[in-house]
Design goal:
alpha+beta, Guanine Nucleotide Dissociation Inhibitor, domain 2, 2 domains, 5-stranded antiparallel sheet, 6 helices, binds flavin-adenine dinucleotide
Length: about 220
């Protein structure tokens, strides 16, 4: 948005804009939020804030940018299961549970998700039942968040959850630098291109610290 909408085009070279517009965004998310009428029973699985698991023998065939994996009868890719109310009991009524099931998916348009979202949500429940026994019988609230909703509520390009895709061609290729080529314009957050690649909140927060240092350094040198 900054380069394409907020900065007057006269300050941007064609070379830069071409390079910038070539950057690929990372995957988006499909999230099923559930409210359960009792605490989820996860058997002997270790209790943690997030359980990521895959029922495939190898996850190396998994490509979250390929929508094809959602077409099989059963979802057999890694899913992320989170129980927020297990760690903060204000997040659900007494003895009830909140749960979120997430899949990383490519951005597809609204029509695609309207047609497919219920079916994908049902498959997610089947897969999560591997870990939470009797899950489907305890669901009293069900809300689906698609990449289109993520785009709408985060303003992230293509509903990306973590910014640019961590591709070898993009990691260490510094297109969006913290100190920009425009005087007094600094960037922080997940859209800064970093040597480490983009990795969510911790790295976004770290760029805040680095950005503050860069601004202080510039001021002190004046
Ligand atoms: C569903 C989901 C789950 C995630 N889970 C995890 C996780 O488990 N762990 C993890 O580390 N990361 C996770 N992430 C990624 C993490 O949330 C982001 O990497 C991080 O929030 C990026 O921080 P940011 O400051 O760059 O951007 P944001 O947190 O998006 O902040 C940008 C802010 O700018 C505001 N803004 C936008 N445009 C304008 C404008 N024109 N004027 C004024 N304000 C504006 C927005 O309202 C927003 O408040 C998740 C992301 C999503 C979407």
């Amino acid at each position: 948005m900054v380069f394409n909408e907020l900065i007057n085009r006269q300050y941007l070279t064609n070379d830069f804009m071409e390079e910038f517009n070539r950057l690929k965004t990372g995957v988006s998310g499909f999230i099923l939020f559930l409210g359960l009428d009792k605490k989820a029973y996860i058997g002997t699985s270790p209790l943690s804030y997030i359980i990521s698991y895959c029922n495939k023998s190898s996850i190396y065939d998994y490509d979250p940018t390929d929508i094809g994996y959602l077409n099989s009868k059963e979802i057999s890719c890694p899913i992320h299961l989170v129980l927020p109310s297990r760690f903060d009991d204000t997040l659900a009524p007494y003895n009830k549970e909140s749960m979120a099931l997430t899949l990383f998916v490519p951005y597809m348009n609204e029509a695609f998700w309207q047609e497919r979202k219920e079916e994908i949500a049902n498959k997610l429940i089947v897969r999560a039942s591997d870990v939470v026994s009797g899950l489907s019988k305890t669901i009293i609230v069900r809300n689906i968040v698609t990449p289109v909703s993520l785009k709408k509520y985060t303003s992230n390009k293509n509903g990306s959850t973590h910014g640019w895709a961590p591709l070898i061609s993009q990691v260490g290729h510094f297109v969006v630098k913290q100190k920009s080529f425009i005087d007094k314009l600094f960037f922080v957050g997940q859209w800064v291109t970093l040597r480490s690649g983009e990795s969510g909140l911790p790295v976004a927060a770290y760029t805040g610290k680095l950005g503050a240092k860069l601004i202080l350094k510039e001021r002190l040198n004046k």
